[in-house]
Amino acid sequence: MLSRRLVSQSPRLSRAASTRARGREAILQKSPDDVVITFAKRTAMSRAKKGQLKDIPVDELLHGLFKSTLETTRLDPSKIEDICVGTCHPPSPLYISRAAALAAGIPYSVPIQTLNRLCSSGLMAIRSVAHAIQSGDISLGVAVGVESMSQNPRPTPEITEPVGKNPHAHDCIQPMGWTSEMVAQTYGVSRQKQDEYALISHTRAEKAVAQGIFSEEIIPIELKGAVVSVDDTVRPGVSMESLYKLKPVFPDWGEASTTAGNASGVGDGAALCIMTTRSRAEKQGLPILGKWVTSIVVGVEPRVMGIAPIPAVNKILEQTGLAKEDIDVYEINEAFASQFAYCVEQLKIPMEKINPNGGSIALTHPLGMTGARQLVTGLAELKRRQGQLLCTSMCVGSGMGAAGIFVNEQL
Prior knowledge:
This protein is α+β, with helices and mostly antiparallel strands. It has 16 helices and twelve strands. The protein has a domain at 163-213 and 294-404: Thiolase/Chalcone synthase (Peroxisomal Thiolase, Chain A, domain 1, 3-Layer(aba) Sandwich), CATH 3.40.47.10. Strands 1, 2, 3, 4, 5, 8, 9, 10, 11 and 12 form a ten-stranded mixed β-sheet that branches. A two-stranded antiparallel sheet has the order 6-7. Helix 4 packs parallel to helix 5 (93-103) and helix 9 packs across helix 14.
């Protein structure tokens, strides 16, 4: 009786759960209850310890992003009903996120939360806001992904001896470089193949920079009296020869095939999107850039956590009734070329659809930012291509993976 009463009191939630659209045609249909994205931008990114954001703490980075967003959108900040910030390693993340929002002019009546699912934190922030809108708890929210790996490098996880005796528990806290070497060793991904996939990322990113493509997704922000608006992470002139000359960075593990040139960069940056219902966006004349469809999370053996985009992409396509061919652009995170190469070849997706402007090997991978950055990058690319469907995915530290499906509405 109680469960029946709860369902009857939440018709919107019950309807959303029971009538999820399946298949390309159904997903492309428009409904007043759709969760839509009205703004999606990112900051320029920076190489950790060396780049333009190396001295910028997370609160200052968020403050700059919030201020620029409000100035650009002219959004009344009092209309924001919740903010969710995905981030991994800064201490007291809720306090500094709340402080940054208040300092940017967002009133104290607007609540905020933070979450951490490592490399998928930005996507999980989007998912959290989408679910709140979908359930009717709010109708307008802001999702953010942010990380300063300069200021807050990965802490060394510590577990007790009884827990560490479990082999999976032991493996889940190992350095991510170790998991890269385990993937290469387990699945026979050669150094040559890793460098070949890395070169694709570097070459595409260099071309995108030359064409000014990233300027379409970057929002300039003012930090310490200077405007930051251009990535400083992309290395020009990368070749197979230059990649071949790089020494392995983890010589004591596996095949020792991971290098600074075929692994994602350690970096700093933030990305943000504003989300609401289609009916509210249309009523208030807000631009509709895209639609959130769904997001999923999976678990895999921690030792080879990098293979997680394979089950994640397969699961989300099955849940949505989509074929791989239905997706116009994939943004699959390049944590390491070892895992990226294996995922691409196992998924059997044409490379021209994946990370068309390069991925984290060339652009860098600020952990909490990436899940939100992929949405920003993917929607901008769909607009250029006049494509309709985006799938994002990433492996997640400790042995997980995540994926999301979005629709481009800028046709």
